[in-house]
Amino acid sequence: MKREKADLFPALLIGLMANVFLKGQTSYWVRPGVVTAPLSILLLAMVAYAFSCCWNTGTQGFLRWGFAALLAVGSALELLRLWQLFDCVYANSVGLLGVCFTVLVPVIYLRRVSSIAQTSNVVFWLLVGAAALLLVSVLDRLRVVNLQTVPLAGTTLQEALTGQLTLYPELLLPALWASSRSKKIDHPARLAVAVVGLDLAIHLLLELFFGAAMPGHDNPVHTAAQTGALSVFNRLEWLQLVLWSAAVSVKLALYLYAAVRLVGGRTGTTENNAVGLDRFPLYFVVMLLLCVGMRKMDLGRTLVWHNLACWTFAGLVIGKGVVEWVLSKQRFAR
Amino acid sequence: MRGCKLSAQLQRNIKFLKSIFGQSSDFYTKPMCLSGIDCCVALFTGISSPEKLSVMALDSFCRDGVPVRSGPALAEYLLKESCIAAESNPITEIDQLVEMLCNGMAVLLIEGSESAVAFSTQDMPQRSVSTPAGEGDIRGPQEAFTELLRNNVSLIRRQFRTSTLVAEIHTAHTRAGTEYCICYDKTRAPAETVQAVKKKLDSIRIPLLLDSSYFASFLKQDKLNLFPAGAYTERPATACARLCEGKIVILVSGSPNAMVVPSFFAEHFESLDDYASGAVFSGMIRLLRYLAFALSVFGPGLYVMAVSFAPEVIPVQLLAKLAQAERTTPLPPMLEMLAVTLLLEIVREAGLRSPKSISHTVSLVGALIIGETAVSAGIVSIPILTMAAAATVATLAVPSLYEQSILFRFFVILLAGLFGIPGIACGAVVILAMACGSEPFGFDYLYPLMPPGRATWQDGFVRSIWSQLAKKGEVIGGDEA
Fold this sequence. Notes:
The complex is a heterodimer of chains A (334) and B (481). With 334 residues, chain A is an all-alpha fold. Chain A has a single domain, classed as Amino acid/polyamine transporter I (Up-down Bundle). Chain A is 70% helix and 0% strand. Chain A contains twelve helices and no strands. In chain B, a hairpin with a 2-residue loop joins β1 and β2. In chain B, the strands form two sheets. Chain B has a five-stranded antiparallel beta sheet with strand order 5-6-8-9-7, with helices on both faces. In chain B, strands 1-2-3-4 form a four-stranded antiparallel beta sheet, with helices on both faces. Chain B starts with 9 loop residues before the first helix and ends in a 10-residue tail after the last helix. Chain B is elongated and about 100 Å long. Chain B has three domains: 110 residues, no CATH class; 115 residues, no CATH class; 166 residues, no CATH class. Chains A and B meet through α4, α5 and α10 of A and α15 and α16 of B.
């Protein structure tokens, strides 16, 4: 009943869920995906853990600004992805400015850590409920015979591994929270299991639903939601869209909180008052400019580049940490 | 004036009192002589009774006499030896004297003594205890708080008959020096919460304090948050129930509404009747209240969204009827809904503020005649009117969240009309974030609804049977203890 420590794990989970739900979920078949899943989990967990260890050894300004820039670009990409989804479903009903406004306004109320934690808790349960509703509504269309028996060859395994090895910023963010220091390995491992497991579950659902036609769809989860015929209403897609939009708002609030921690500081006197109100005009302007600047870009390709940038950044931090560790050992030996 | 001592010269004290109260026609002084000692009685006639003073003290003086011959000895005699019911503490300072007089006491100033003696002769005009006007309950006690602070404290103490009830009276930092009382159960209320409330209230500086709700804004952590910082009740029974939960009740002199802190979201959906009715029925009613709140906030917005942006969510037959109705009206659905909702609010406000004798007429004219003619003239459509009226009625199912429901409703209609589904999502997340962001004195505002747990089903969305509830009485901070 009393709020002592805000747990941001549900917020991280929601961020991952939004990533998995909103990205193109048809990158690999389930059979090779199951085979590569343990390796993917291990790799992601190890990278996240190593990042967490190396980040805590002391980071310089440029790395902090680099991480903040990655988060800013990631936020803009989320907004653009949501805009494209809305544009695809309800063409010309809402513009980029409208999407930015509706997603960013709630962030004002999510400027405190406890607020992010509690809201993400509620949104998480609502998302679970909506996912269950989606599943029930399309249950009669799921066919086991749709599962593809693709050979476990090098190409298919590589495809699955590439699809699963996306280094989302959420996997790196626990390094920033002071509370996670005591359980470093715990958080990255749980997050890696969650992201790969969720990705695999979505692929399984889509394969059961679409069968061999799965790779041909741009928004497969959304297409599946559209076919849901539960209740007197014909479609449930609006409910899914509302919840995904809510998830993106929570995700962006988390990114903003992390970015403020990275680039300097909190305006509040306590840890809970993470983001001061005075920062929001600047935040809105930066987000709008980024979205306007990136809206003509090929989103799929930009996401790949963003993923590469995340890997490079993690590599840089880990490399720096290793070098520092070796140097300190040598100094100690002398 | 603060810290100034009373003079031993009676005339000087009287002169001083006349200099500050002399222009007031209700200020009364009566010089007299008791056993050869010059004295003076001072009081305010409207709030203190000279008759009571006569019965309490003056009759006794005349009948039995006073066995002393000096001013200080008379004060000492009245305070310590006499059986006359004077206040036990002497008045030695000017501001103390002024405070006592303003509180309705009669004060006896004595020549040669630097102490004055106060008599509790208050006789204030007051409203008798009546039934609550704004909190409808069928069962349970039917008495309500009044405007008199001491009466309200006694109403609580009469129902909460334990030695653990603490009622601390303080004076607020206002121009009028209004008193307020902090009531809590010392064994149940978390000590740090009590201290935080006391500290917060003591730090408040406002010119006027007419109701406990004036404190609410100061107790809010996030000023942008629209959810209330405290819950209000006019029932001593509800206040006692909250005291049992370890909460703190704040009473303000002159106000019949008590504020309860910390307050949680779920409290707005509870009523005394819930606990008097059967568990199954009260559970259903409670769920209906949540549904009513959701309808009052999101109903009109969802309608506007569905009609303007996502007609596929409406069944075809209903859609045809809605389209037919909308075709005849000149305004787009969002403006139509806003106009109707505004009109309903104006009718409500007019009915509330107008004299009682014509308020029914105002409501009738507003609701029936304007509504009927607007539909007949094709200015608004029937579905819009139906939805707006349903939302307005639903708001009344949770009266304590009335302000929030209205504000949220307008916000959601605007967003839904401008942006469609993202607008609804924005409205939902903003409201959710406000509720989740509220942290009254460090407690979860959404407790026990979120995070879901045993308490959610014990006394949250529904309530379990009394034998289950009685096993573990709900006390805030109980889990930490």
